[in-house]
Design a protein that fits this description.
Length: about 90
Amino acid sequence: MRCDLAFANLQDFLPLPQTKLSLRALDLGSGTGVAALRLARLGIHTTLLDSSPAMLETAKRAHGRQELRTSSYCIMGTLRGFTLQRSM
């Protein structure tokens, strides 16, 4: 429920679904990827960063079970020395 409320508040700041923007989100400390999955369902390309291989594996499984129209990338690591590679 707490996640539902936080996401509802976040949606107020997101563009309307009918806009054709190519949006990207970086989910830091993504855990199981619940927030990133919700963003991906809205058509936002997501990158998940977490230091736990087990959490990222759970996120990969959850994202793999969904039919998403965007890409999701899981990266194991921490913010220390992290640079986000921009794909072309």
